[in-house]
Structures are given as structure tokens and as C-alpha cells.
Fold this sequence. Notes:
Number of helices: 4
Oligomer: single chain
Helix content: 10-25%
Number of strands: 18
Distance between the termini: 64 Å
Amino acid sequence: MKQKLFFVLFALWCAAAVSAQTSARDHHRGLMRMVYAVKNYIDSSAVRGIDPSYIRVPERPWHVVARSNVSQSILRMNSTVDAEAFFSNVKGNFLWEPRITTEPSFSVGVWGGYRGYGIGYQSNVAGDKGSTLSLGATGGNYGLNVRFHRFQTDNPKVHYEGDFIQDDGQIVHECETFQRELLSPIRVHTLIADGYYLLNGRHFSYSAAYDQSAIQLRSAGSLMVGAMYYYSHVNYADDQNADFILLMNNIGHVRQWQVGVGLGYAYNWVPARGWLVSAAFMPLVTFINRLKVTAYDSNYRQLAIDDIDHDDDELPESDYRISEMAEYRRNSNLTLNSDTRLSVTYQRERWYLNAYGCYNHFRYSADNSHGQLHDWLACLQLGIRF
């Protein structure tokens, strides 16, 4: 009886093992079929509709690219505060305008992918503390690029302007710009995703200029329609920034979402064999411009609005405490942004050297507080095809 039971269990185990191996093989075959289907789609989309006398697709599809970037972000925020309600020596409104201009940041990293589809990561080695993650997908007449960027600063340059009451009662208009040291930094995260469609994809290749998954053989230009998604998160909501938050109209958190569409033009100039110079400009009309702002109360603010005059030094910064007061959303009006790019490439069959730059400009508005971000990037990359 035990022998029969053993043989039955052994037979069931063998059947389960064979079934598992068959299932694994089927799963592997299904996965490989999907991989080959994606590969065939990428290969076919790379050559679909192009004129081979203008554009050539390299035979070696894989790319490994060493990248080095120089970038800078300029964030300018301003608020108009009824300072007379807080400070006894100020008459009327007071303009407070932090200007965050990061030092030019140098980053190094790598990008890898198949034809125009890939992912890259770069980390800053000098300048601000930050990193960039980039994703790319380009075909014969379309493309999509995504860039994540983060940075922080504890040393913004601040411009202020207002009417100050002197000891003798005279009112003097003061205007000054100074470097403000923060005990807790301002942190900024941004995401920029842009897509485009070329109206002359038969003769013009955008990917030849920016990811080198194609080679432009003759000069050509194209109108391009595009869309851009932008998200930013500016955060300086910390206890030790209570006085800074007060002068920002109690705002300590700003989140912004923008979606814009545009029509632009790009041109590829081939001055000699192996060389390519490309320029593109696309103005964007932002039709979705949403803002979520978080306001904060603090013991510093309560001290400032007290009927009894207090000295600024009466409450040390180490004792500042903030608390969330309100959160509100705003839909801003249509705004005009822009996407500008320039690229220079020299390439051979197996390798290429490319330098390109891009510039973006975004704005936001929330009642008496406004802001704008200027973001530029210059990249040098050496790529190998295999």
C-alpha cells in the first residue's frame, strides 16, 4: 500500500514538474514574442515614410552614451505684502522678491537604449545638489522626452522695496538686494515632458540632432506641432523659515501643473559629410495652468500681528514654529511659454559626438504672489553604436 502511494505521489510530482516546465517555456516564448514584436515595431517605425536620400538609419541599433551636462535654474518669486499690518516701521505695501539663481551645475552620467528609445541618469558633481533622470522615445516623425530635475538652495538672493518710517517720522523709500541665508533650504522638483510630431518627417529627422538614432544626409526643415507638460514643486515650509514664509504672503508650498500646445519650426543643416547643425523653436500656449498653494501660520506671524510692538529678535529662530493654515487652488489665465533647442553633431558609423542646449520658461500667479522659472541645459555626449 505504501509503495503504491509512493508511486502515485511520485507520478503526480513528475506531472507537476513537467507542467511547470511547459508553462515556463510557454511563458518564455510569450515574453520573447512580445520582445520581438516591440523590436520589430521600433525598427519599422524608424524607417517608415522617410526618404533614404535625406535620412539614413544606422545598422547598429544599440547606443551607450556618456553624458556631461551644465545646467542652471533661475526661480524668481515675488509677493506684495501689506507690511503696515505687521511692522510698525513700514508704510503701505512691501515688495519681497526672492531670486534663486543656482550656480551652474556640472553633472555626469550615462544613457543607454535601442535606437531612439532609452533611459539616462545623471548626478551633479559640482554646483547645486541635484540629479536628473531622462527618458526618450523617438520614431521617424514623432518623439517624446521626459526630464526629472531636482535642486535646492539655502542662499537665495532677495530684492525688497518699500516705504520705511524713520525715527524722525520721515518716510524714505528703500530698495535693496541682498543675500539671504536660510537655516532650511528651498527645495525644487520639476518634471518636463514634451512630445512633437513632424509635418515633414520624410525629409527631416529630429532624432538625428538629439539622440543620433538617425543620420541626416541633406539639409531640410519641418514645421512641428507639439505639446508640453510641466510640473513643479517648490517647498520651503519649515519651522526655521517662519519669517521668510510671512513675507511670502504666508505661502510655504507651491505646486503647479501646466499643459501647453504649440506650433514651431526646426531646421537641420548639413554643412559637410558627418556634420549636422540643428535649431528648433516652438512657442507654446498654456491652456491648463493650475496651482495649489499651502499657507502657514506661525508663532512669528502671531507675534507680528499682535497689537503690542515687538522686536524681531524677541523670538529666536530656533523657537519658530509653523502650522498649516489653509490650502487653496487657482486656475490661471492662458500664458505663453517657449521651448528652444540647438544642437551640433559630428558622427561616424560607430560613434558620434554631440553638443546640444535647450531653454524653457514657465510662469505662475496666485493672487499677490507670482513666480517664474527659467531653466537651461547644455549637454555634451559621446555615443557608441553596436
